[in-house]
Amino acid sequence: MMLVIAGLGLYGLRDITLGVLEYIKKADKIFVELYTSIIPGFELQELEIFLGKSITVVKRSDLEGRWIQELLDVARDKLVVLLAPGDPFIATTHMSLKLEAIKKGVKVTCLPAPSVINAVSASTGLDFYKFCRPVTIVKPQRFYFPSTPYFVLMENLMKGAHTLFLLDIDVERGYAMDISEALKVLVELEKRENKGIIDENTLFVAVSQASSPNEVVRAFRLSDSFCSGSPPHVLIVPGMLNLIEAEALQVLAGATHEIISMWNNRVRRIINQNSSLHACTR
Fold this sequence. Notes:
Blueprint: E1 2-7, H1 18-26, E2 29-33, H2 44-51, E3 56-58, H3 60-63, H4 67-77, E4 79-84, H5 92-103, E5 108-111, H6 116-124, E6 135-137, H7 148-158, E7 163-167, E8 169-170, E9 175-176, H8 179-193, E10 204-208, E11 216-220, E12 233-237, H9 243-253, H10 257-281
Parallel strand pairs: 1-4, 1-5, 2-3, 2-4, 6-7
Antiparallel strand pairs: 7-12, 8-9, 10-11, 10-12
C-alpha cells in the first residue's frame, strides 16, 4: 500500500505534525529508529500511550541490512510508517530506503520535520544563507583520523561563510561527542595541517539541544570557560558577520563586541588572502 518516512523533530512530541499523526493513526505498522540522533524529552512509551498503538524500534543493522526487504514486502499491502529523529533525510540511510522502495514498486510518502540544520539559525541568529558546506567531526580511531572537517572549515572561511560541524553520535552504544572532544579533534588537525585556522582567537559557537527548553548557546574562544549543556551538540565557526548577526551573537550567545570585531577582521584577511592567491594564479 505505502511506506511513509516521517520526522519526529527536535524535542519530545512537540514537532510531530498533523500530517504525520494522520498517517500514524491509520497505519497498520509503525516503526521508529532512534540511532541517528538524540531527541531531548522524547519518551517512546508516551507516544504509544498517546496513539494507543505499539511502535517497534528498529536498529541500524535492520535499516542497513536484509530487514529492509521485509519492511518493503509489508508496505506493498499495508500502510507502514517509519519514524526518525529530526528530519529523516539529513541521514543518507533514509534516502537509500526511499530509493530502494521506489525501485521495488512501493509507493513512498515523505514528511520532513525540523532538524538542527535549520534550527541553528534561530538559535544563534546566524544567517541561514551564509552557512556553507556542513561537515561531521567523527570520533578518531587508531587508523582513522580524517582531516575533512579542517579543510571544509578553511574553504568556507575563504568565502566568508559559516561552518556547521555535526558531531559524531552512536546512540546504540551510548556515545555522543561533546563540544570539548570536538575541539580537541580540531586542535589536533591544526597541529597536523598547520594552516593557522584554529588558535586561541578562533571564534566558536556551541549549541546544545537546539530549540528545546534546555537549549544552550554559547560563543567562546579556546581560552574561555563555558558550559556546553547536554547532547546533542553542534559546533559552529562563523564566517564574516553582518550587523544583525553580530548583535545576535552578543544577545543570544554572550559574545562581546570586541571579540566579534577581532574575528571579522581575521575573516576579512583570510578572504583577501584567498582573493590574492587566485589573482596570482590566473
